[in-house]
Amino acid sequence: MKLSHLDKLSNFSGVSGDESAVAQEIISKIEGYARWELDPLGNLIVYKEGENRREEPLLLFAPMDEKGLMVSGIEKDGSLKFTRIGDTDRRAIPGRRVKVGANGIPGVIGGKAIHHTSSSERDKPVEPDRLRIDIGAENEEAAKALVQVGDMVAFDTGFERLGLHRLKGKALTSRAGCAVLIALIREKLPYDTVFAFTVLREAGEGGSSVVAASVQPGRAVMAAAVPADDLPGGGENVCLGGGAVIPASEPRGVFDKGMVAALREVARSGDIPAQLSSLTAASGAAGIQHAGGGVRTAVVGYPVRYPESPVQVVDENDLDAVEQILRQYIAEP
């Protein structure tokens, strides 16, 4: 996987429901390598021609949206009220830099100074409805000249390397999977394969079910983020740097046993590091799995630290393992 794919993708703003800039960046990376189309919902579907045909479509997919906020009101003092899009950890919101609206108006999230809080308030996370976005506007009129209610708000977290193999940025729970799929699309493949970059994952998986209805795949594999629990207090079932994650199940269901076995065999025979833990949180694969008459579905995941925060960390080696497993899996009819 070329790091440049993930570098730019992570820095783009693409809050759930407003993914068009991310889709255009992906298109710029795959143009000339495959045929693509955008459906009415905004999903990017890519048809990669291989050297051989398949009896039924194989779909590889990853979400491209991200957690964020939406402007819900403008106060008389020029500050902005907001609501969360996705399950961003409320403990991680205060003090964050953000970009508001299509023009990326800079702002910072803040609230009552800690010096003015009671002892009981200090012991609790600040509720989002008690926070505001400060864009430097002196009053309501000045703020309305820059933003409006309904504008999306993206966290402003720069992408960078941490140490030798760790990568820090926002939206890595989606964009890291996108980067892996881009790398595969740019290669010569032995069999026809369909790829999809889906919308609205953080708003309830709506995008992936629409893709399933359009493509009607026989099988589908999701490149998905898996929460790492290798920090103090975690169960160490999924560790950053431990390799790809090939789960048998998640809270919303059980993955196709034959596909899970085949993917694990690919990892075993290719000596590719893999973790076999079941998922403790929904991956988003159910949107495909439960669509129409049902689709045989599996997940090849990558561990992510702090997945519900504006700053996430992944390991480059884990992403390489995911790419290797998918490359070998799609080499079979």
Question: Describe it for me?
Answer:
This protein is α+β, with helices and mostly antiparallel strands and 333 residues long. It is built from 9 helices and 19 strands. It has 2 domains: 3-66 and 170-329, 3-Layer(aba) Sandwich (Aminopeptidase), CATH 3.40.630; 68-155, Peptidase M42, domain 2 (Elongation Factor Tu (Ef-tu), domain 3). The protein has helices at residues 3-11, 20-30, 119-122, 140-144, 172-185, 206-215, 257-269, 286-289, 316-329, and strands at residues 35-38, 44-48, 58-63, 68-74, 80-85, 97-100, 105-110, 132-134, 152-155, 160-162, 166-169, 193-198, 219-227, 244-245, 249-250, 253-254, 274-275, 296-304, 312-315. The strands form 5 sheets. It has a 6-stranded mixed β-sheet with strand order 1-2-12-3-13-18, with helices on both faces. It has a 6-stranded antiparallel β-sheet with strand order 5-4-9-6-7-8. Helix 1 crosses helix 5, helix 5 crosses helix 9 (316-329) and helix 7 (257-269) packs across helix 9. The longest helix is centred in the middle third of the chain and has 14 residues, at 172-185. The two termini are 23 Å apart.
Explain briefly what this protein structure is.
This protein is of the alpha+beta class and 333 residues long. It has nine helices and 19 strands. The longest helix has 14 residues, at 172-185.
